[in-house]
């Protein structure tokens, strides 16, 4: 004969600390919600615009049959060998890049240093350097970027001997900076406070030991 079983269920804030840990780990199994990194990507593109970098876009097909343009920014993470971030785009000199970066991110010393390094390198080359960054290979870290540096201008002058290394290292430092922003955002999204907020928003319930009921 069928029989009914009565079970007490709890919201996340009603559980004891050990049960809360179990409930949070269940929620974290699939990681943060899709698109958690998009605000970081948006911020990165603003920084790139300040520096004179035009991020390349690619066509992404949507489930409904349409498409959209997405930035060519790639990453993997966060605690395995080979993790990192990279991007594709074109860099040219932008007048006032250092000031633009300082205005947008006045407390970020690393971005200020990158902008200053590019400015110095451009000055030595009469502001005629340009570069193309392309993602190569299977890994999404700064060394997965192929960076081709050239000097333009009407007179055909050669770039200074340090131009390629200077621009290349600045681009890779920028990719490292991006990775740190992504890692920080991921850690924030996985924090107890945000996990609890998401669990409450979805009205999940649990048994007394923290196992999901519904």
Notes on the protein architecture:
With 214 residues, the protein is α+β, with helices and mostly antiparallel strands. The protein has helices at 17-28, 38-51, 97-104, 109-124, 163-189, 192-201, and strands spanning 53-55, 57-61, 67-71, 73-76, 84-87, 89-92, 129-135, 145-151. It contains six helices and eight strands; from the N terminus they run H-H-E-E-E-E-E-E-H-H-E-E-H-H. The strands form three sheets. It has a four-stranded antiparallel sheet with strand order 1-6-7-8. A two-stranded antiparallel ribbon has the order 2-3. Strand 4 (73-76) and strand 5 (84-87) form a beta hairpin. Helix 3 (97-104) runs antiparallel to helix 4 and helix 4 packs antiparallel against helix 5 (163-189). The longest helix has 27 residues, at 163-189. 25% of the residues are buried. The mean pLDDT is 92.
Average pLDDT over all residues:
92
The total of beta strands comes to: 8
Q: Can you summarize the main beta sheet?
A: 4 strands, antiparallel
Order of helices and strands: HHEEEEEEHHEEHH
Question: What multimeric state do the chains show?
Answer: single chain
- Into which percentage range does the β-strand content fall? 15-25%
Give a topology summary.
Layout: H1 17-28, H2 38-51, E1 53-55, E2 57-61, E3 67-71, E4 73-76, E5 84-87, E6 89-92, H3 97-104, H4 109-124, E7 129-135, E8 145-151, H5 163-189, H6 192-201
Antiparallel strand pairs: 1-6, 2-3, 4-5, 6-7, 7-8
Helix pairs in contact: 3-4, 4-5
